[in-house]
Amino acid sequence: MDSHRITTAGISAEVSARGAELVSLRDAAGNEMLWQAGPEWPRHAPVLFPTVGRLRDDTLRHDGKSYALGQHGFARDSQFEWSERSPDRVVLRLADSPETRQSFPFPFRLELIYAVADDVLTVTTRVTNPGDGPLPCGVGAHPAFRWPLMTGISKDDHVVAFETQETGSARSVVGGLLGKDKPLPFDGRQLKLSESLFAKDALVMPGVASRQVTFSALDTAGDSAASLTVAWNGFKDLGIWSKPGGAPFICIEPWYGMASDVDWDGEFLEKPGILVLPAGETRDFQWSVRF
């Protein structure tokens, strides 16, 4: 595998050129905190671009034409080029090509910047529109973390705590598309985790107020025995997912954009919630994890 590891005393991360994907994330003691692409789900932390989620019939419609574009887009399966490699930072790049234009008829430049400092990994997704017209796209992160976080603590003794009071509802997922709102079993600040939460796919939370969440394993007194915090800037939506039926990971996913509504099948430029980047502009989306 063509990959590179970046390291500090408090954290280390390995990134692959395939998909610009984070494939390892270890704490100061060397414990692996990232899901290692087992049979339940063969990925670690895919980059979502130029869509987040599914389009109806996996079809992008633009200017009277139809293009086949699968769930979460093609970046996660593309070969990126290294533009920088150092002990604590890497930069990878992907640009439009005749191949990408077969499924996504827009010029783009995409950079993934991974950097470590102290006990924090920061990931920046930089989207540039080099074209003459608008660039519509979705952008997202999909990191999968160990669940349970600690040996000896059950999966049910874990919570995701939100920075800010949330509405307590999420969009349902129907065949990969968005359905009606559904209530979440939490008070808007602390979501108690269980495998049953994901029996019908992801929890999709549009327009979250929080800009960070803390994923914690709780001891018998209800105190945090281990935790990690995922923070973000630029993203506006959030997905939380684990494999229906049970798997030893949980994904905490900052997004800009979501899957299509079940009853929406229109022009991609007009897709609700999508980013539309004007010609010549660049936008950064950042997430980080701290143990």
Automatic annotation (TrEMBL):
Superkingdom, taxonomy of origin: Bacteria
A biological-process GO annotation: carbohydrate metabolic process
Coiled coil (UniProt feature): none
InterPro entries hit by this protein: Aldose_1/G6P_1-epimerase, Gal_mutarotase_sf_dom, GH-type_carb-bd, LacX
One Pfam family of this chain: Aldose_epim
Entries under Gene3D superfamilies matching the protein: 2.70.98.10
GO terms assigned for molecular function: carbohydrate binding; isomerase activity
Record-given protein name: Aldose 1-epimerase family protein
Native species: Jiella pacifica
